[in-house]
Amino acid sequence: MRVKAKSEPVRMCVGCRDRKRKEELLRFVERDGVLFFDPFYRAEGRGMNLCPSRRCFERALKKSVLDRALRTSLAYVPSPEELRDQVLDVLKDAIVNSLRMGYRFRGVVLGREAVFRNADRLSLLILAEDLSENSLREIEPLEVESYTLFTKEYWGETFNRKPTGVIGVLDRGIANKVSNLAEKFTALYRRWS
Ligand SMILES: [Zn+2]
After folding, report:
1. What is the per-residue pLDDT across 30-75, written as a single tens digit (0 to 9) for each?
2. Are residues 114 and 58 in the same domain?
3. Same domain, 161 and 117
4. How far is the CA of 54 from the centre of ligand 1 (A)?
5. CA atoms within 13 A on the CB side of 55
6. How many whole angstroms from 14 Cα to the centroid of ligand 1?
7. How far is the CA of 77 from the centre of ligand 1 (A)?
8. Which three-class secondary structure state does DSSP give residue 100?
9. What pTM does this model have?
10. 21 C-alpha to center of ligand 1: Å?
11. What is the pLDDT of residues 83-114, one digit of tens each?
C-alpha cells in the first residue's frame, strides 16, 4: 500500500509569488474595503498572504496587485510602513496574551531563578532587550531557542511584577505559538530596511 506523504499547507505570497508554508507568511483579509492582518488564519473573507519583508509589502501594496489578489478594491491602500505597524501591534498583543495565558496555568515562568529551577522543562526563552551581559552569559549554556523582545520594564508591567528580563516557556503549545509570532515580529521589526 502506498502511503501518501502528509503535505503541509502552502500559500503563495502576493509580493514575490513564492510558495511557502502557511506558518512563514502573514495573512491579510479584506473587510468593508479595509485590509486587516489575521494573525491566526481564522478570519473569514477573501485573504492574501505576504512574506514578512519590506520588499514583498512594497510589491503587493499597489492597487493593481491588490485588486487582483482580493478581487475587490480597497477603500484605502495603506503604505508598507502603515501595514507593518499594524502587523507589529497585532503580533505584540498576540505574543503578550499567549504568555499571560501560559503564566496563568504555570506553562510560563518569570525571572532568572524560576527559569533555572525549570531548566530541564524549557521550550523557549523570551529575553528583554536590556538584559545585562552577565545575565545573557548565564542563560546561554541553557541552549534553548530564544527571542529578544521589549524591555524588562515592559515585561514587569505586563505581569504586574518587578522588571523582568527572562521569561521561560515550558508549555510546548504556547512555545510553538509564541515562537512563530516572535519570528514574524523580529523579521518586520529588525530586518525591515
Ligand atoms: Zn514574498
Report:
1. 999 999 999 988 888 889 999 999 999 999 999 999 999 999 999 9
2. no
3. yes
4. 9
5. 5
6. 7
7. 18
8. helix
9. 0.91
10. 12
11. 999 999 999 999 999 999 999 999 999 999 99
